[in-house]
Structure formats: structure tokens, C-alpha cells
Specification:
The chain has 199 residues and is mainly alpha-helical. It is 73% helix and 0% strand. Helix 5 (81-98) runs antiparallel to helix 8 and helix 5 (81-98) runs parallel beside helix 9 (149-166).
Length: 199
């Protein structure tokens, strides 16, 4: 039985990510991936069942890295819900700009296909849970006003994803982050109750 090498697997995933981002899924050949990764084509089948499995592994790897980065950022600032939420948005956009191929891949992914993989569901739920916990902390502290934090926790990652997929290449990272933050602050900031004074 052959011993699997994590570094080799990651090298294959990185090479595949570049190829899938550069051309449509159906045009990427496993032989091209093997060549780009510097391994034999047969080696790919030791690590991945088929091209679909490799494709989903590329997406999952990027998503896992993103979530690890978010947790690390949030762990450094546990006191301020607004700052934590802003950190999540900044990290989501930063990751998108540093890894544009991931969003190109996500543009074409079939979520029905992804849903078959339990790891994906768990990671997506982990991201939603992280955002929801930040919002609930803000509600408890009177910083946020949100009757459905579980829904907002779904909106935020998809807002960033949609903007990245649809936005013009001319939009710089700073402008995009600030606009998303402005929108989110406006939607979540607790409003002071209006006092009606009788004449």
C-alpha cells in the first residue's frame, strides 16, 4: 500500500486550481494537471477518484484556508463585535483578491454537487456559526439590532461572493471593503429609540 504524501496532494491541488481558473472545467485534462504538478497521471488517481473529486478538493482546500484565517483573526479580538464583523468582511475580501481563481471556480460550481460532500456542509455551517456568534454577541451588547442573526450569517458570505463575482475589475480592494462595511454597519447598527414628545 502506497503512503500518501500531504505535500504532494497540496501541490496537485495548487496546480489544478490554476488550471481550473484559467479555462472551463471540461477543457482541463488530468494529464495537464499532472504535468503542471510535476507528477505522473497515475499519481493523481492515488489522491483523487476523478476530475470531479479533484475539482471539489480544490474548492474545499481554499474554503478551509479562509475559515482558518478568519478564526485566527477573530481569536485576536474577542471583545468588540463590530470590529470582529469588520474583520470577517475584510478577510473575506482580502482572500478573494489574493486568490481570485477561487472565486472563478466558485462561480461555476454546482452546489448540488458540493452538497454530496459532508465536509463542505460542515465547513459552510462553521462559517455561518462564526458570523452568527459575532452578531449575537453584538445584540447582547446593544451594538447590533437584528431579529434574525441566523439569516444575516448566511447573507454576509454570499454578499461578498456575489460582489466578487459580479464586480468590475476596476474596483480596488479598499473601495470594495469599505462599501460592504458601510452597507453592513447601516443594516446592523442598533438604532436609538425615537422619543415622541407630546405638545
Amino acid at each position: 500500500m502506497q503512503v500518501l504524501d500531504d505535500q504532494k496532494r497540496l501541490k496537485i491541488i495548487a496546480a489544478a486550481a490554476e488550471l481550473f481558473a484559467a479555462q472551463p472545467f471540461h477543457k482541463v485534462l488530468l494529464s495537464d494537471v499532472a504535468e503542471a504538478a510535476g507528477v505522473g497521471k497515475g499519481t493523481l488517481y492515488i489522491y483523487f477518484k476523478n476530475k470531479d473529486d479533484l475539482y471539489l478538493s480544490v474548492l474545499y482546500s481554499g474554503f478551509s484556508q479562509l475559515l482558518d484565517q478568519l478564526r485566527e483573526t477573530i481569536d485576536q479580538n474577542l471583545q468588540d463585535p463590530m470590529q470582529n464583523l469588520e474583520s470577517v468582511i475584510r478577510e473575506l475580501v482580502r482572500f478573494a483578491y489574493q486568490n481570485p481563481h477561487m472565486y472563478e471556480l466558485m462561480r461555476a460550481v454546482s452546489w448540488h454537487q458540493v452538497a454530496k460532500h459532508a465536509e463542505w456542509g460542515a465547513k459552510r455551517a462553521e462559517l455561518r456559526g462564526l458570523i452568527e456568534s459575532i452578531i449575537r454577541q453584538g445584540i447582547e451588547g446593544g451594538v447590533f439590532d437584528d431579529p434574525h442573526p441566523e439569516l444575516t450569517a448566511r447573507f454576509i458570505p454570499n454578499l461578498v461572493r456575489s460582489v466578487m463575482i459580479e464586480s468590475s475589475p476596476a474596483v480596488d480592494q479598499y473601495t470594495l471593503v469599505e462599501h460592504i462595511l458601510r452597507f453592513t454597519r447601516s443594516a446592523l447598527t442598533a438604532k436609538e429609540p425615537k422619543i415622541c414628545l407630546e405638545k
